[in-house]
Write a structure and sequence with these properties.
The protein has 216 residues and is an alpha/beta fold. It is built from 7 helices and 4 strands; from the N terminus they run ααβαβαβαααβ. The longest helix is centred in the middle third of the chain and has 22 residues. The structure holds ligand 0WE. The site of ligand 0WE has 16 residues, from α5.
Length: 216
């Protein structure tokens, strides 16, 4: 939306002048169709799709999971999980040399993180969708993977109660005894998009200072 437009333009500016910035409401099939039609018109083909979008209504991330409304569940899954399926389907015709599709996940998909609630269920759907998409698109040499990131102090994290404590918890308990840097997530994305990862598909790669291996 408009609120983030300046940030997006600043970031896209670092890629040089031949960029295209388009709005996309991922809950609308017409929007993804329009985006990839414009990408096709300008560039002719596509190599990489990074899915980095999630939303659950704020009240669903505060109370108990058992109280999640049908509507909050629907919205969280539509925006955070189904959108990967819709975008992959729209991107596929442009990935004529094969391609790499990446999605961002979080540990709350596999273990209970208090208050992550319906987002954890939606991330579980996102990770499972990654595997089914990897199977379908493998014949087109399109790979589909998730990066499961440790907590990063982003704009989306700022509104989350207890987030600073979560950063401290990772510093204390992760094998590397530190938090993840944004550029480390970027470097993993670059690797997964590269030919070095040509035989990696359907995976969830943890970029979390090793936190996920711990049992206690
Ligand atoms: O996936 C996320 C959060 C994504 C997110 C953030 C918001 C905040 C504003 C989705 N929907 C909303 N809705 C809003 O209204 N993370 C991995 C970050 C996160 O969120 C948490 C976490 C962590 C970590 C929520 C509770 C507990 C832990």
């Amino acid at each position: 939306g408009e609120r983030l437009k300046d940030n997006v333009e600043e970031l896209a500016g670092t890629f040089g002048s031949d960029t295209l910035i388009l709005p996309c409401d991922v809950t609308k099939d017409e929007d993804s169709a329009r985006v990839f039609s414009e990408v096709g018109a300008k560039f002719g083909k596509l190599n990489l799709l990074l899915h980095s979008v999630a939303f659950a209504p704020k009240d669903a991330l505060e109370g108990e999971f058992v109280n999640t409304s049908r509507e909050a569940f629907r919205v969280a899954h539509d925006v955070s999980a189904y959108s990967l399926v819709a975008l992959a389907r729209a991107a596929e015709p442009l990935m004529t040399d094969g391609g790499s599709i990446l999605a961002m996940s979080y540990y709350g998909a596999e273990k209970v993180v208090p208050h992550y609630n319906v987002m954890g269920v939606a991330k579980a759907a996102l990770e499972a969708s990654t595997r089914y998409l990897a199977y379908d698109l493998g014949t087109k040499k399109i790979r589909v993977n998730c990066i499961s990131a440790g907590p990063v102090n982003t704009l989306a994290a700022r509104g989350i109660a207890g987030f600073q404590e979560m950063l401290k918890h990772y510093e204390a308990h992760a094998p590397l005894k530190r938090n993840v840097l944004p550029e480390e997530l970027g470097a993993t994305g670059t690797f997964l998009a590269s030919d070095g990862a040509a035989a990696i598909t359907g995976q969830v790669i943890y970029v979390d200072s090793g936190y996920q291996i711990m049992g206690m």
